[in-house]
UniProtKB/TrEMBL annotation, chains A, B, C, D:
Keyword Plastid belongs to the record: no
EC numbers: 1.14.14.9, 4.2.1.120, 5.3.3.3
Matches recorded under Pfam families: HpaB, HpaB_N
InterPro entries, A to Z: Acyl-CoA_Oxase/DH_mid-dom_sf, AcylCo_DH-like_C, AcylCoA_DH/oxidase_NM_dom_sf, HpaB/PvcC/4-BUDH, HpaB/PvcC/4-BUDH_C, HpaB/PvcC/4-BUDH_N
This protein's UniProt keywords: FAD, Flavoprotein, Isomerase, Lyase, Oxidoreductase
Residues of the HpaB/PvcC/4-BUDH C-terminal domain: 273-472
Protein's UniProt name: 4-hydroxyphenylacetate 3-monooxygenase/4-hydroxybutyryl-CoA dehydratase/vinylacetyl-CoA-Delta-isomerase
All residue ranges annotated as the HpaB/PvcC/4-BUDH N-terminal domain in the record: 3-266
GO molecular-function term, one example from the UniProt record: 4-hydroxyphenylacetate 3-monooxygenase activity
């Protein structure tokens, strides 16, 4: 397993192909640092006795000790440990730990490649296993590039004016394929070792060019990452651990990129495009059953704490709102537990979370995220929105005023009052907080997608039959 | 295991101590029949090859085949099977299967009696085990009499003007105890073999008279059941299976009732009153994670079916509402699965569902029940409220009009249109439906009780600490 | 103005054409009595000094004193008084006062007939004015028969297999027209003097047969009313004023019914069918801005009172829920006030409520009705669902038990505790309560219809333009 | 009336007493510019023929033409015009127009000062009228400094450890008073001419030092404003009108500030502290019935437009969500209309909005604000959160990629797609957007305050009486 330092060293040596705010950047650019620090926690924790058991496990391929983020699930415990790991690590960085993306992609490919091979006699699974060994041994960071830019939402991939609006195979060559297109919303991509591309949806028979999956180094020729960096407002004096963590999302452009065959895991098998897309969605929504409760943990901790600081910690409406957050967190987490407890073995002998429950959990998180921010705002009062900047608490002319007038519960020092309100302001009344709101709705698939997922596989006919039975209805002859 | 007939035979021979609508009734009274039919399904299913595996299991005490409703959980599978059994059987009767009450009471007593014995050197657990063997061998129906009438809600048991407003020990005698009081909302009690009484809440040191648990035959001298019967509107011609099922709730009055020591399972151990109350609540809320999804199944089946009959089954808003009900059902059921998957072994070596998840599931069911009825009403249109009585569909003068004008989707016969709307009317626009709404809020503990339960055991300090860490707050010295 | 007695006398002499539960009934049948009593309140109040000013006004046609339910609005005060009258009278009968239907129909016809005349040179308005004078002088009760049975909801009137599924003109004769069809959900019809039929929707050019409006006596040859009666559970001893009020809904069948020309107010003018349908909807939704707050008044009164009786009247969650009901009532009522304050003069010089606000008010009432019942159930506890029947409070064998154990707040007598819980049970945990839930969703048009109404007339382009302006977007050239 | 230029000229000459981010700033500092531009619109519109009638009116004191923001309401039309003016102008700046604060303060003082004079024979009203003439003639901008910092929320003003935590009278002198304390969340204060201080709550008899109201120039000796500036992210190339508008909030510190008697409008009359506080709240919540609909207008315009751009403008779920926003906007606006239509004349002969409806409107806006952002996020998709910075759309290396891959509906140019998504990102996924969320909850009083306001004045007893009547309950004798 790599150290955080080794990971950063590797990044430094990659080909610069990242643009942020109009500039080409190498991977040691300050704008990437918050995201890199976040990922770093997954390396550090693997070596920290307190978290080692949670964050490492044994590879089923090599028997070696590996980071759990590179693992293929073979037991319910594997799944539950992953969920717990995510919640724990997200709590340490104040939000998304990001590394689940690669983990979810390899697990999705693991079963699907086997199924394709069974159906068509291909050897994708063997290729993938070989790749996985490399991935685990080198303790790599993978980005899952799934969401295409999608163009006109009312049209299918093959109907778009510009065929590149969904990533596609431009040419098949002897030694590999050429692909073009653009994947959006690619968190972690700018500081990932590898980009793992998979389809974003079901494909029709005529859409074999768009049924493609592969993995390539993130600095491969032809790949350009145009990015937006998200991090907490920087601090002047009153340092806070969470300010060093952040994320970076990429629009990942593939401009005639060559992928060698050994890195191609699907190539035209349209029937399995939807299966792979959903397998990733399933694993990723399961991940959300770990990370969203972590965000809610922070919300409820902040709400409870600010109520204490305001002197209203025991007020019934506060207690009730905090309990509301507990329920939200645990319904989402419990849905993940249920998904693990009823997980199903796939063709490759690995486990996949129960799609129904992973979707229910992600759905419930998605429809509640804005309300969680609302609760925090409601109990915090208006100060997070009007808190004067940090320097006004430092500058001699105003420092005393600020400390005098921020005082609430007299048992809490002015400094701690200040630190808490600044945290809440930076966390929930900020650009970063707003990004978390959007991510809470759309990351891993928006609620409407989970509803579609759920109802697609739900046996509604059996429910109609219950009613027909109870109501004494026999089917009409036709 | 008994047959349904044997059960009814036994009921017939019990001492009449049931009042409904001002009359003393024996247990073969027509007003009790719907409830008895419901319980009957649990006997019949145990002998039906299709359900036998689900509804029977092996006693850990005797090794004999027993009805699962008499079983003490010793594996996750025990718990999950119970949940599945409840959902299945509730679907067959169109609502509450009722028999879980006794099951939840004996499981609650099983661990708690052991804990009391460990603490005080008593022999309650041994008594209980002996009782359980009798209970299982005779395949009995037990009612859990928990909720006291409670008098002034702002006062504790010992503060009430009338000490009987919580069931209490009036006298301890050599061979047993004398109790007085009244337990409310006792579903199944009028046709149960046994009444199992347990405390409704925590008790203070001064409340040892109110810390009492026991089991007695339902027709014991001094016990009077004043009841209300709930069943679907009866039918004249268009029969429907669900109309034969119903329930009966009792205010169970204990007027100086003698309980022999071998049937006493708690007697003054105030410290364990709350533990027992919560253990029952936990098991019963876990049961709700099986039965409420069954009610939602009916809601969603009816909603989907009436939309088909109305010709709007594919309309986006219909599809979305039905999916909403799917999510509701599966979040509740999934919470039960999570409670089972993370169940904990108690002092007696049996399993108890994870309190956190059983409460989350019950809570979510409770806050959604009215909305479920709203969805069904919304898609059904106004007809369930204005549908002329059945005889208007029979009487020659109006029959043709009714059949002509009830037609919607022309592929569905007038008779089936009629049957479905009558079912929906009788199910959701009726006294019985309204009882289900109240029961959906309060049965097993209203949502506010689950929130109290959850937050009582929740480690909110650890969440505050996450925020303190992220915000860089060190504790104030005091 | 008529007395209640005169009204009943008239009913008694009408041709029996009412079926309920398979029997032909005359209009003094006991099943109609609760509905008739409700309407009676509008006659009595007109003669009661306390309400006279609210319930009577001066006809703009004759200058005579008339019941306000027969009035055509000519001032904002007319509109606001009507709203206030409805809220007041609904409070006296515990629900829908019903008589608004005819009022809303005549107001809708008043403007629309004028518009048709202007467009086509017809004389509908003159006919209507003549009819109105008769209507006012005789202080009549009118039912608005609007909602057709509608058959397959995915098809238009002219596309149905059976053309009668929307009321239609079968034949035009020299002295009048022949119509056939069936109008559903016709509250008040069985004890109305007159049935006023209007279209339920917009009609296309090819649907002139379905564009028809007229008024006829309710016992006209060919008219058959197949009804369902709704009333509170009857009482044995503990009388309560609200139990004598109820309602009756009719499926009103028109089987080749002759309507003389002077009673025909639209005959084929398809362009105005939608206008008339919406004009009635507008007036009727405005009425809902008066009656729904009355229902909420009862909900909040009952919730506040039962909390007092339970001893928890000052508990924060109770206070908050009651305040929630206050807000609901007043947003709905306030929307009505806004609709009145911004009402618009129509072609006939009368006022019509502002469609936007009447729809907002009715919408908000519709989406909250189930939640209101949920609040009442939540604070009441489970007793309304399990309260033993009245006779158990009378019968000597159980009376004392019941009185002993229903006690809560010791300052309230057992009798009053009993009366309140019986009221809540009969009001909210009953067939009648469930009918009110359905009516709350669908009566006057379900929330989805108000949304459609609102967005049809809303200037969304102007809102897009605000955004284009702010965002600096100039329109694409095409 | 002043011009925008005259206003800015005046600001420039005021004593610098503003700190932002640790620096003392004069009033032509760039950080104040966005706020000043916003206020400028109220000057420009008064001279713009299109808005002149809306934004100007005639002073009831002088008969002169004045800006409507300086007017005292004397007719329902005055109130409705103000509401319309606010909605219109907020639409022009993309949010809060700010100037209502002073308007609401003077209207609140107008009636209250009269009432104090009547009660105590003081001459506050005369002082105020004199001040108002000066205020109107000079077309001044006033800030209402109401919300105290409040310290420990569980304690009253007089119970705080530090008496300054509520603004208070330190000393009464012959020519005036000395005050100390700090008012928080003072929008507009840094570029206001005047600060008008009023109490934040009811005061007890012992709290006469805290019952104080006055108006002083914003640069008075002893006044220090510590501020936070909020504005949209600046643009590099793709300019958008809304980016030049913003706001600035101040913690306004009063450190032994002298106020001459002619500027003191309350001085120790504790009985009227609550009355004045609520009078301002009433007027300000009425203002919110104009400004929140303007924010919703932008939300719905953006949602509808982005749906068009995504090619899904006609999708049922989009149409429904947009309609949801229409209802929200119009319920809030309609509540304002109702408040105006039922406004009441105060002791000074001016009108005050109906407190019930102004609170209902503000409440409903407050509980919906986060949901409105959720709707916009939901329909926009994830792009507002991951949109690369503007320079990536300018830089040659990435410009083409960006324009190629942002394309959706092919009828909309890449430039307009870009502009819209940048607007939505800057508006809803930004620090400024988050400030609007907080302001939407807390500005003018959070929803919990409106509920308290409503229930304080609500006649709940009359509702209990309706239920007692219907239920046949006669009061217990005690």
């Amino acid at each position: 397993m790599r150290t955080f330092e080794e990971y950063k060293e590797k990044l430094k040596n990659m080909r610069p192909n990242i643009y942020i705010d109009g500039k080409l950047r190498s991977r040691d650019d300050a704008l990437l640092e918050p995201g890199i620090n976040t990922v770093g926690v997954t390396f550090d924790a693997a070596r920290d006795p307190e978290y080692e058991n949670l964050v490492t496990t044994t590879s089923h391929l090599t028997g070696e000790k590996i980071n759990r983020f590179s693992h293929i699930y073979h037991s319910q415990e594997d799944l539950m440990s992953k969920q717990k790991m995510i919640r724990t690590l997200c709590g340490k960085v104040g939000g998304c730990i990001q590394r689940c993306m690669g983990c979810d992609a390899i697990n999705a490919l693991y079963g699907t490649t086997k199924e394709i091979d069974v159906a068509y006699g291909t050897d994708y699974h063997e290729r993938l296993v070989k790749y996985l060994k490399y991935y685990q041994e080198n303790d790599l960071i993978g980005n899952a590039a799934q969401t295409d830019v999608k163009g006109d939402r009312s049209k299918r991939p093959s109907e778009q004016q510009d065929p590149d609006l969904y990533l596609r195979i431009v040419e098949k060559k002897e030694n590999g394929i050429i692909v073009s297109g653009c994947k959006a919303h690619n968190t972690i991509a700018p500081y990932a070792d590898e980009i793992i591309a998979i389809p974003t949806r079901m494909m029709g028979k005529e859409e074999s060019d768009w049924a493609v999956a592969f993995a390539i180094p993130a600095d491969t020729e032809g790949v350009t990452l145009v990015c937006r960096s998200t991090s907490p407002r920087p601090r002047v004096k009153y340092d806070a651990p969470f300010t060093k963590y952040g994320a970076c999302d990429s629009m990942t452009v593939f401009d005639n990129v060559f992928v060698p065959w050994e890195r191609v895991f699907m190539c035209g098998e349209t029937k399995f495009a939807g299966r792979l897309a959903l397998a990733f969605a399933n694993n990723h929504r399961f991940s959300y059953c770990g990370c969203k409760p972590a965000v809610t943990d922070i919300m409820m901790g902040a709400t409870a704490l600010v109520a204490d600081y305001n002197g209203i910690g025991k007020e019934p409406h506060v207690v009730d709102e905090v309990a509301e957050l507990m329920v939200t967190a645990e319904i989402v987490y419990g849905s993940g537990v249920a998904a693990a407890a009823t997980s199903k073995k796939n063709a490759a002998g690995a486990l996949e979370p129960n799609f129904l429950y992973s979707n229910c959990g992600r759905y419930f998180a998605g429809v509640n995220i804005y309300h969680e921010y609302e609760i925090l705002a409601s109990i915090s009062g208006g100060l997070p929105a009007t808190l004067p900047p940090e320097n006004d608490f430092i500058n001699e002319a105003t420092k005393e005023y600020m400390e005098k007038y921020i005082m609430r519960n007299p048992e809490i020092s002015a400094e701690n009052q200040h630190k808490l309100f600044r945290f809440i302001s930076d966390y929930s009344c900020s650009s970063m907080g707003a990004v978390y709101q959007y991510a809470g709705v759309h990351g891993g698939g928006s609620p409407i997608m989970e509803k579609i997922g759920i109802r697609s596989f739900y046996d509604i006919e059996s429910k109609k039959n219950i009613v027909k039975y109870l109501a004494g209805i026999e089917d009409d002859e036709k």
